[in-house]
Amino acid sequence: MKITNKINLITTAWIIFVLVVVNIAVFYSFLKVTVNVEEKVVLQNADAILEDINNGDSNEVIKEKLSKYLTNGSFIRIIDRQSKIINQVTNNKQFANKIKGKFVTKTTSNRYLVRMAQGEEQMLVVSIPIEFNGQVIETLEIGERLVGLELGKDVLLSILVACTILGALISLIGGKWLANILIRPVSNMIDTMEEIEKSGITKRMTIEGQPKDELQKMAVTFNRMMDRLDDNIDKQQQFISDASHELKTPITVIKSYADFLRRHGIQNEEVALDAVGVIHSEATRIQTMAEKFLDLANTESENSLEKTTIDLITLSKDIVKQLQRTYKREIILHHDEELITVIADELKLKQVIIILLDNAIKYSKDRIDIYLESRENDTIIRVKDYGIGISESEIDNIFERFYRVDKARSRETGGTGLGLAIAKNIMKQHDGEIKVKSKEGVGTEIELFLPHKN
Ligand SMILES: Nc1ncnc2c1ncn2[C@@H]1O[C@H](COP(=O)(O)OP(=O)(O)OP(=O)(O)O)[C@@H](O)[C@H]1O
Ligand SMILES: [Mg+2]
């Protein structure tokens, strides 16, 4: 079922329900008010009657007096303590016979539904105790047809039913129109989405001139999503072109040395060995690069972590030992506490620390310091070197993929410009941060912030 029809049906059903409830309330209030008014009139009559009749009056005199108060279709009677009618005047005997007299000690008022030959009729019967010397001796009972109520009730009922039907019709027609107005922006969105699906080109929704409501918010979110998608596509394309560009150089070198070997054969063993050496080193470079591409792709998604509680000091000591053995460099670990634990993906955390140390080793010659510090909300890992440093204008770029400050030197050191991009991704995966402080010719300090709650 279309959403417009759904809205329409639901609102119409609701409006009918509201109308029915309100109409029932109106109808019963009308009944109550009408009966109350009639009751008041009857009680006033009763007061007049009680004033008029005297205790010593004969039955005939009383009858005569009561007759004056008869209205259309009513009865007035006096009932003794045994609930026996001792005097009665009426202009509708049928009514009077249908309702039994009853002796009461308190004023009461009852409504009866009397079945007559022409159908049912409403009757109001009010009983008032007659007192003599402080004692109730008889009851004055006045019965009256509720003519106004009968008439009014039917008219009111027809009006209310007609109003309910009219309300439902208006709601059905107006609801369709309203639902269409409300749903139009959604239909526009669906059209745009279908166009995107068909053409494969991202598009934006028009927001100008639209009221600031949830639908506009949805369109804004959609446009933002498209922007991100475009951004990601751009990044992906940029990555593919950068990666191809990076691969081109070593492949060209390999190809030209292989060509050389094919053309000249292995006449000069020394030259041939040289060529094989270059081919091997460039192939290794391609291999490292491919591994880094995979690392980058692997750290790009946000939820591929295997977090455990890690003893950071032991982990750092292991890394330092491993690197010292390989590079023969002085790396000093500083920490005040004896135990610092972090919750993180051990392999990835190790990878970040190695990326920072690898840079420090490549871009400095002096010793390297590592500081570990646990604070209230996070743990800081600081890697400090006293090397070439990074100029202020370059600092913002070093986290970009393939960015290298000095391309020639990086090539010498074997860098691909992906290390810090991977490190940044890993820190993002851990809801952490990575910050750089550096001065050209003085040194570089890179800080990792790992939040305790992640
Ligand atoms: N400690 C540092 N001292 C000086 N320059 C640095 C330091 N760390 C990074 N850089 C600069 O930032 C650039 C980017 O670093 P990144 O680690 O991303 O790439 P890379 O080291 O060149 O290559 P890769 O790490 O992929 O092997 C480096 O090329 C270098 O110019
Ligand atoms: Mg690096």
Q: What spatial order of strands do you see in the largest sheet?
A: 2-1-5-4-3
The distinct ligands, each listed once, are: adenosine-5'-triphosphate, magnesium ion
The total tally of domains equals 3
Name the CATH homologous superfamily of the largest domain.
Answer: PAS domain
- Which outline best applies? elongated
CATH topology of the largest domain: Beta-Lactamase
Rg from C-alpha positions? 50 Å
CATH architecture of the largest domain: 2-Layer Sandwich
Helical content band: 55-70%
Q: What's the N-to-C terminus distance?
A: 45 Å
* SSE pattern: HHEEHEEEHHHEHEEHEEHHHEE
Class of the largest domain, according to the CATH hierarchy? Alpha Beta
Number of strands: 12
Label the structural class.
Answer: alpha+beta
Largest sheet, described in full?
5 strands, antiparallel
Strand content: 15-25%
Description of the molecule:
Helix 1 (3-52) runs antiparallel to helix 4, helix 7 (312-327) runs parallel beside helix 8 (346-362) and helix 8 runs antiparallel to helix 11. A hairpin with a 2-residue loop joins strand 4 (119-132) and strand 5. The protein contains 11 helices and 12 strands. Helix content is 56%, strand content 20%. The protein is elongated and about 155 Å long. A 5-stranded antiparallel sheet has the order 2-1-5-4-3. The chain has helices at residues 3-52, 59-67, 93-98, 147-199, 214-264, 269-300, 312-327, 346-362, 392-395, 407-413, 419-429, and strands at 74-79, 85-90, 108-116, 119-132, 135-145, 307-311, 331-335, 341-345, 368-374, 378-385, 433-439, 443-451. The chain folds into 3 domains: 3-154, Beta-Lactamase, CATH 3.30.450; 202-299, Orthogonal Bundle (Helix Hairpins); 307-451, Histidine kinase-like ATPase, C-terminal domain (Heat Shock Protein 90, 2-Layer Sandwich), CATH 3.30.565.10. It has 454 residues and is α+β, with helices and mostly antiparallel strands. The two termini are 45 Å apart. Magnesium ion is lined by residues 355, 358-359, 415, 419.
